[in-house]
Design brief:
Blueprint: E1 2-9, H1 11-15, H2 19-28, E2 32-39, H3 43-49, H4 59-66, E3 71-79, H5 81-89, H6 102-106, E4 115-117, H7 121-131
Antiparallel strand pairs: 1-3, 1-4, 2-3
The structure holds adenosine-3',5'-cyclic-monophosphate (CMP).
Active site: 116 (pros-phosphohistidine intermediate)
Domain Nucleoside diphosphate kinase-like: 2-139
Family: Belongs to the NDK family.
Length: 140
Amino acid sequence: ATERTLSIIKPDAVAKNAIGEIISRFEKAGLKVVAAKMLHLSEEQAGGFYAEHKERPFFKDLVGFMTSGPVVVQVLEGDDAIAKNRDLMGATNPKEAAPGTIRADFAETIDANAVHGSDSPASAEREVAYFFNADEIHSR
Ligand code: CMP
């Protein structure tokens, strides 16, 4: 079924000048960018986005990293978009990511892991709405 998922190109990948290469992978896999913007997240924005991880030991570092530079947030649309995006990204820890995945090719550490993608339909709905108003999403 056609789904939408939220993708974030994180500060490490933006700093590496890899925005285009990463978006190319989405497009080549049949995912369409239906919304996109570059943001430099505040602590409040990053902390709210990752609220489910608030009690985890890595939360402070995660927020620190996600506010360290600009990110590109996008809504990807396509058949089975949530799982497809997660396949393209590879495992959260780049050291465990399969060859040819975005994290294997662009990421160095579990903190600086190049991309985020929604992990379920419920989180996709929440995450898309966290960054985009309905009139900023151009379904096609
Ligand atoms: P992301 O998919 O953006 O969701 C939460 C992020 O926390 C994750 O990617 C990692 O970059 C980061 N993180 C750091 N340590 C861990 C950990 N032990 N388990 C899961 N995520 C972690």
